[in-house]
Amino acid sequence: MSERNEAVIDNKLVRQRASERYKEGFYTNIESITIPPGLDEDTIRLISAKKKEPEWLLEYRLNAFREWLKMPTPDWAKLNVPEIDFQAISYYSSPKTKAENAPKSLDEVDPKILETYEKLGVPLHERERLAGVAVDAVFDSVSVGTTFRKELAEAGVIFCSFSEAVQDHPELVREYLGTVVPPRDNYFAALNAAVFSDGSFVYIPKDTRCPMELSTYFRINANHTGQFERTLIIAEDNSYVSYLEGCTAPMRDENQLHAAVVELIAKDEANIKYSTVQNWYPGDEDGKGGIYNFVTKRGLCAGIKSKISWTQVETGSAITWKYPSCILRGDHSSGEFYSVALTNNYQQADTGTKMIHLGKNTKSTVISKGISVGKSQNSYRGLVRVAKRADYARNFTQCDSLLIGKECGAHTFPYTESGNMTAKLEHEATTSKISEDQLNYCLQRGIPEEEAISLIVDGFCKQVFKELPMEFAVEAKALLDVSLEGAIG
Amino acid sequence: MLEIKNIHAKAGDKNILKNLNLSVKPGEVHAIMGPNGSGKSTLGNLLAGMPHVEATEGSVHFKGKNLLELEPEERAGEGVFLAFQYPVEIPGVNNMYFLRTAYNAQRKYRGEEGIDSAGFLRMVKDKINKLHMKDDLLKRPVNVGFSGGEKKRNEVFQMAVLEPSLAILDETDSGLDIDALKIVADGVNQLRDSNRSFIIITHYQRLLDYIEPDYVHVLADGQIVKSGSKKLALELEEQGYGWLDA
After folding, report:
1. What percent of chain A clears pLDDT 90, i.e. is strictly above it?
2. What is the ipTM of this complex?
3. Angle at alpha carbon of residue A158, lines to A156 and A160, rounded to 5°
4. Facing A446 at nearest CB: one of B77, B87, B91
5. How distant is the alpha carbon of residue A440 from its chain centre?
6. Are B124 and B138 in contact (CB under 8 A)?
7. Alphabetically, which GO biological process terms does the record hold (chain A) (predicted)?
8. N or C, fewer C-beta in 10 Å, chain B?
């Protein structure tokens, strides 16, 4: 690509981004109960008491907290993370109406909150009526409503907030919590285990195909608070579920911390499809503000022929540190990871996956597409490990990076550890720039530059987009266009 | 339709075109021939507005407009089409979607309504049948994994869909076997009418057996050194380009 042409693309994007507004960046003025900033054992006792948790869960939290205190902050990622003052964060914030009496149906939810979700394009009532997608809406530290509960209950599916699950299905929570991501797994997982507030809980019984898509919409609203959600999905033998999550936050100059843990468990022949469209506030064009997104997501393919598939479209957050992984324990189980990560301005992303092959004939597929724009840094980090007894394990990894402009960076860190001679691992990696030739070809056919870039990037991401549920694929493409080029019609 | 006057142009840092003049009227087919390095492709790239070619002197008018002042996508909207010598691959973007985007972008430029995907599909199916090309061309990603011949056919197909008023074919015949050559020529001949003009850039006379030009120009060292009827192409075939220097 010639110097001149690169500069042209760069300036245009910077200009567009500057004039663009993060349309989810508004704040909902609502009375909330927020505990004072600070973190010690009393904070944890307070959170646990507010949620009326059983003693064993408080113990779980406190143990995690004590582990966390002993752990150093991780520094191995290719990220420049400013020091986080954990004492300056409030660990619990709840809309006031929700705090005292949990609404049992959407009609009891504060209209202002419903309006917020409407503005975000997730109208809870309409989603319920029109789209046939069940939604759990998490607002700051609490779930404010879950739709379609009755229909799901008829199928035997449990879909509720994590807090409710603790009250209504304590035996399930206790059996599975922390079995895939133990509290001492890593620094941010330990923090989450200590202070987690709310999230979603899904249980799909044996021989059940979940009758609709399930989704959770996470929203950070309050100031100086962190969001620490916890999601647990259990799919019993021969069941299927497709789960989607979306995330946004107001525009603020401060950085806010989001440290979530997601655990998936797939039993014999169960199939879990987990899709994420992550659009936390990325910060402004000078790198001010934005969410620090430190997330641990892991699925256990516990049963034979089980399958877990992660699909993520990551366009938000100032910093993303996230490696949705699969532990392939059941023989013939399979794991998939499809990812599009786009960074612009001063965003940093270090994301990828871990595929741990333990069972025989296990199979994994990794397709990662990184797009770097502006002054951003975008890394793929992936581990494929084949255990000694995992005969005939197979992995295919493809990492493609696309650079737009001259000041951004793309990096690939693939790690492979094979302890079995029969394993077959394939890795392909490419780094390319949007070539001048491609651009000129589009221009000559009459396609203006912004549209041409969007077309080329969309093509680049095609392999991943086709894995998303239809409705989300459209949303993801639109989001990518906005992140790339501003509010052009 | 097209008036090129005293044009001088650089490709990169090199002066390639030197005082070139050419006039093309509606419905005419002009063949530009010449040895390698004579500036044939530079002329095509200059007309299409490709960024590495720059005019330093002279003027180009197309349908009365100063072509050199227009952006490449605006020129496309005005009806200038370049069939590339080396068509570019765009992974993940299917040909049909690409073409519809281009088609609607050009219509938008001209202030016309866009066309929906059903209507577009009907139109392209009709064109592809007339050109005796295969339907799968529509679903495949733009030029990805295409053979040399398929890429050139795709250029002709795109031309048929976009219906330009000036089509420039840059060595579309190079690397084609005789069957592919016939399909390409047939596509061009189908599109010939009294309002559409062609500039056919070629090194060899062979394509002109199938596309009969109204004029043949010989380009050497950045200038048109000889113009004539299609007989000139035959002379070149017999004698090569060497006699031009004498």
Report:
1. 47
2. 0.95
3. 155
4. B77
5. 36
6. yes
7. iron-sulfur cluster assembly
8. C
Q: Indicate yes or no: CB of A448 within 8 angstroms of CB of B101.
A: no
Q: What are phi and psi of B110, to 5 degrees?
A: -85, 5
Contact A461 B92 (CB under 8 A): yes
Q: How distant is the Cα of A398 from the closest Cα of chain B, in angstroms?
A: 15
Give the tokens for residue A388.
Answer: 């000694």
Contact B141 A455 (CB under 8 A): no
Say what the pLDDT of residue A247 is: 67
Provide, as residue numbers in chain B, all residues whose Cβ is less than 8 Å from the Cβ of A463.
92
Angstroms from A150 CA to nearest CA on chain B: 40
Token duo for residue B62: 């197309």
The per-residue pLDDT for A300 is 98
Number of neighbours of residue B1 by Cβ within 10 angstroms: 18
How many C-beta atoms lie closer than 10 Å to residue A47's C-beta? 21
pLDDT digits over B156-192, tens only?
999 999 999 999 999 998 888 888 888 889 999 999 9
Q: CB atoms < 10 A from the CB of A72, how many?
A: 6
Q: Which of A5, A444, A451 lies closest to B82 in CB terms?
A: A444
**Token pair listed for A123:** 């109208």
d(CA A99, CA A463): 43
CB of B208 within 8 A of CB of B202?
Answer: yes
Assigned token pair, A105: 């149906």
Identify from B101, B143, B162, B163 which residue to disrupt to test chain A contact, counting A C-beta atoms within 10 A and taking the largest count: B101
Q: How far is the alpha carbon of B84 from chain A, nearest alpha carbon, in Å?
A: 8
Q: State whether CATH 3.40.50.300 applies to domain B2-244.
A: yes
Could you give the strand order of the β-sheet that contains B80-83, starting from the edge strand earlier in sequence?
Answer: B80-83, B166-170, B197-202, B29-33, B215-220, B223-228
Residues of A in contact with B51 (CB under 8 A): 2, 4-5, 436, 440
pTM: 0.81
Q: Tell me the pLDDT tens digit for each residue of A127-172.
A: 555 455 677 777 766 666 677 778 888 999 999 889 999 999 999 9
H/E stretch holding A216 = strand A213-219
Q: How far is A446 from chain B (nearest CA, A)?
A: 4
Q: Is B105 on the interface with A (CB under 8 A)?
A: yes
Total length of chain A: 489
Give the mean model confidence (pLDDT) for residues B38-46.
Answer: 94
Are A446 and B48 inside 8 Å of each other by CB? no
Tokens 């001063």 found at: A346
As a whole number of angstroms, the distance between CA B121 and CA B124 comes to: 5
Which tokens hold the place of B143? 């030029």
Q: Are strands B29-33 and B215-220 parallel, antiparallel or unpaired?
A: parallel
Cα separation, A235 vs A176, in Å, equals 12
Residue of B nearest to A461 (CA): B92
**Nearest chain B Cα distance for residue A482, angstroms:** 18
Token pair recorded at residue A483: 């992140």
C-alpha distances in Å from residue A122, one per residue of A133, A224, B150: 10, 25, 46
Q: What is the pLDDT of residue A480?
A: 75
Establish if B71 touches chain A: CB-CB under 8 angstroms: yes
